[in-house]
Amino acid sequence: MAFFDVFNGDADGICALHQVRLHCPRDAVLVTGAKRAIALLKNVEAHAGDSVTVLDVCVDENRSALLALLDAGVRVDYVDHHASQALPDHPLLHATINADPAVCTAVLVDQQLGGRYRRWAIVAAYGDNLPNTARQLAHTLRLPTLERHALRQLGKLLNYNAYGDSVDELIIHPAELYQRLHRHPDPLRFISDEPVLKTLAATLESDLRQALCISPEHVSPYGSMTYLPDAAWSRRVSGTLANHLARDEPGIAHAVLLPTSDKAWRVSVRAPMQSPYGADQLCRRFPSGGGRPAAAGIDALPATERSIFIEAFRQVFAGPRSLPQDLPIPSQSIRQTYASSSIAATAPSYEAHQNADDREADD
Ligand SMILES: [Mn+2]
Fold first, then answer.
1. Beta bridge partners of 220
2. Per-residue model confidence as pLDDT tens digits over 179-220
3. Which residue, 26, 125, 257, 317, is most buried by CB atoms nearer than 10 A?
4. Whole-prediction pTM value?
């Protein structure tokens, strides 16, 4: 009988599996990938009587492989927080799917295990860009602020490692990162003992420095547009760069465009921080766009539609802007936090749709 652990290669997937295997140690074949590589179950070669644990990858992208495994007599334990169509009704499937926007997979595992390894759920919640959830969990443990900030930084760095088109572009393979992390029941010991975290922090900083050497094109009174080159570091840093530009020039909107392999652009948009709305409205005009009012993205803008995007950007962000009545004005404390947060605390998250969303929050 063989075991397989299938997990998203980001902070949430890694911390979810870590808790599961601290609770129930087991030698298993690890199946994972970069953050966007979510159709993972098709890579599992399991047979009748084998057992597969799946964490933090959407059921919809794995449905046919899931059905094939179940029909072959494989038991599947599935925990995830991405919205999906109805689950297959099968006696070998044991699934917890909860798309509540306040939870991530590691938090669902934390609930199942009665909070036994909660600090890892806090790391994951920060990595998955759920600072309120992370703070609430930290409160239940009465965590000192400094310790909570260390867990936040760890979550952001684990998450940053997962950005890239393939595992070859990542600083460390997520399976290797998980194995190093899994030696440590205590996240603070992992932070103090694991040298790869310093490498990750240094990479984030040097990626951002490199990106900031590129001058934006289409600079106008209402916005900037930055074209990143087709390079691994660009793919790691694009969302982080957008957040940095938004803080640096809060009066205007920012777009960061990254060429993809199929003659399209991956676009990150940030509304002006001083009137933080319109980004989602802009991105949803395109089929693969989504996000929040302040921060949104387009997964694949066809190269032929770039001028349409530039015009839409102008329409949304040019001219006098005042906050619509029904939108809350961000509090002073949020603005101050934006201004004071560190570089490494700004890795983006694509969690809401696992593909299209591009948003940022911090605390
Ligand atoms: Mn997640």
1. 223
2. 999 999 999 999 999 999 999 999 999 999 999 999 999 888
3. 125
4. 0.81
